[in-house]
Each structure stands twice: as C-alpha cells, then as structure tokens.
Design brief:
Layout: H1 21-28, E1 36-37, H2 49-58, H3 71-81, E2 88-91, H4 93-105, E3 111-116, H5 120-127, E4 132-137, H6 146-156, E5 160-164, H7 176-185, E6 191-195, E7 217-222, E8 235-238, H8 242-251, H9 259-269, H10 272-292, E9 299-301, E10 309-314, H11 321-330, E11 333-334, E12 336-337, H12 338-341, E13 349-353, H13 357-373
Parallel strand pairs: 1-11, 3-4, 3-5, 5-6, 6-7
Antiparallel strand pairs: 2-8, 7-8, 9-10, 10-13, 12-13
Helix pairs in contact: 2-9, 3-9, 4-5, 6-7, 10-13
The protein binds pyridoxal-5'-phosphate.
Residues 41, 93-95, 119, 164, 168, 195, 197, 222, 224, 230, 235 line the site of pyridoxal-5'-phosphate.
Amino acid sequence: MVSVKNVALIQNEPYTPGLSREYVAQKFGIALNEIAKLGSAENPLGPSPKAAAAVEKARAKIDLYPDWTSQALRAAIATKYGFDPECVVCGAGETEVISSIIRTYAQAGDPVLMYEPCFPIYHMFAENEGRVPVYVPMGADFSFVIDKYIAKLKEAGPKIAFLTNPHSPTGRFMEERDIRAICEATGKETLIVLDEAYIHFTQTQGSMHLLREFSNLIALRTFSKAFGLAGLRLGFGIAANKDLITPLLNIKPTWNLGHMQVEGGIAAIADDEHVNKTVDMIVEMRAYVTKQMFGLNRVRMVPGSRSNFFLIELTDPRLDSTAAFEELLKRGVIVKDGSVSFRGLGKRYLRCDVSQKVHMDRLVRALKEIDANGAG
Ligand SMILES: Cc1ncc(COP(=O)(O)O)c(C=O)c1O
C-alpha cells in the first residue's frame, strides 16, 4: 500500500476555489438565477462567440492527437503581440505554465519571491518539492513598496520573482516605471515572471514590450478572464528570449492542449470586439459598485482596483471574513473569504468580482444588511 512516506511531492494545502452556483443553490435553496457568482473573476458575458463556434467545429477532430506544442495557437499569439512562435509556450490555463516555470527554474531549497498576499498558486507550487517562498509584505492599503521588493530581491537572490499586474487579490496597478526598476535591479540568475492575467481591465496594453529589454523576463496571460474561456483551460507564457521558453516546452505534459483548446484560443485572440465589450462593462460596473458602496459603516471597498475584482474590508473589529462570507452566501452572493483563499491576508477581507448591475445590486443589498445587523 502507498503510504504518505512514498509521496515525493510536498503538498501542504489544497487550492480553495470559488464556490459554484449549483453548490449554493442546493445548500441554501436559492434559485440558480438569483445567485451572484463573484468569487472566481470569470467573464459574466460568457465566452467569445467566435471562440465557442471554433470549439464546436474542432470537436470533429477529437479522435486525433493534437500537435504537441500547439504550434498554430503559438503562432496566432506571437503574431498578435509581435514575437516569434518560438517565444510562446501554451498551457492548460496560466496555472499549468506557472507549474512548468517553477519546476524548470527552481529546485528544492531555492527561494521564490512574491508579494504577500498573492495568487496562492505561486507559493503552493513553489512549496511542492521543497522550494522556499519568500514574501514581500505590501504597504498601507496594499500599495506595492517597490524599495522593499528590491531589497528582498537582493537579499534572498531568488531563482524566480513573481509580479502580478494588476495584483490579486487587491486589483492594484503597478506602474511600468516600477516594473522596470525591479527588472533593472534583478541579477541574471533570477527569472522575473510578470503575470498579466487581468491586464485588459486596466485599459492599458500591459508591459510585454519590456520583454525585448530584459532577457530574464517572462510575461503570462490567460484566456480565462477577458476572453471568457475559464472552462476551456488556456493560458500562455511569452518571452523575447526563446531560450527561456524551450525548456518549458520540453517539461510540460506532452499533449497538454487538445484541438478544441487550440482552435478556441485562435478564434478568441482575434475577437477584440468581445474583449472590448467585456472591458467596457467591467469598467462601468467597477465605478457603479464603488459609488454604491459609499456610506457603509462597518464595511468598505479597498480603493484602487484596476481589475475585475476588489477587496472588501470589514472595518468593524466585531466582523470576521468567514462569518461575513457565510452571511453573503445565505443571501445568494458568492465571494472569496480572504482568510481561506489568500495566505497572509488575515480575517478582515473578502475578494469580490465586478459583474453585471443585477449582481452588483444584489451584493450591495446583502452588504447593507450585514452592515446594519452584523455578522461575527
Ligand atoms: C493572478 C492570477 N494568475 C493566474 C491565474 C490563473 O488563471 P488560469 O489558470 O485560469 O489561466 C489566476 C486565476 O484566477 C490569477 O488570479
């Protein structure tokens, strides 16, 4: 029998995903269409229709092995951003690319740098096989303290340094001069990973052009957010320095993407109309919910999100994120309990998506009730 002693991989904690509508509907007896799903930062407008049609068409090929490097998708991504296909690696979501990067570029005992709090996959995958996450605490109201990040970078000499722009769970935007300052301060022995999963919602082009300046920089993007394809599982890494990408291709599971993912991705990346429509809606609703949340006494929105989610702070010490999370669930509102989902965030925060007006109204109604009655 296999015992714990036989497991070579160290896995301290499982990932805690946002809850599904079905789970909440069943547990609390709420109709599915009455539930605001605000815990997974998906696209409330659904997939790009062009991508959905391409996936449907690609079904005809599922008896055949796909190309093992997803060459056609890599070429489409490379053309879109002005690089060679050899500069791109695709994965089953960014999550798979992050896994390949950590396994390729850091060994047991090696430090891996990141802000705290951050996307938990960075430290979870780092800890697998015994790498050591090194955290940089954030400043007041979750500002990036760049000097501290650079000091830690120099002190720890990490094999990999993660940056997320806009950041999760805060949604804060890192100015390009700060990304550049970090890249300039980084020695060649450190790989910098710039995760731009949510970059569309900042209404900027992001910082992929820095790839041409820094040969130890990889940028990551996902199809799960603005493209609306979280269920298809598709993401990519891109670097101007092809030598960073080749080992990632070799280490990834060989046929990691099927025909439907590849064809869906090619159609999605060409569908600017769907992305623009999504971004316009999110930006409008981000402003709307910000206004609607003014005037609450025991709860506030942490300001400054440029993403499709924001942090809610429970300012009354008698409130607690797990109790508030449960109170929201009972009212058909799914968010993320910061104390469960983000290491180091503590018991005072919820992460909540920006979504359509009906869902924002449902959220604000529920928050007003908690504000008036308390939960904790
Ligand atoms: C910051 C960040 N990066 C990457 C991802 C991974 O996205 P996916 O694996 O769906 O591409 C997420 C998912 O929520 C995220 O929040």
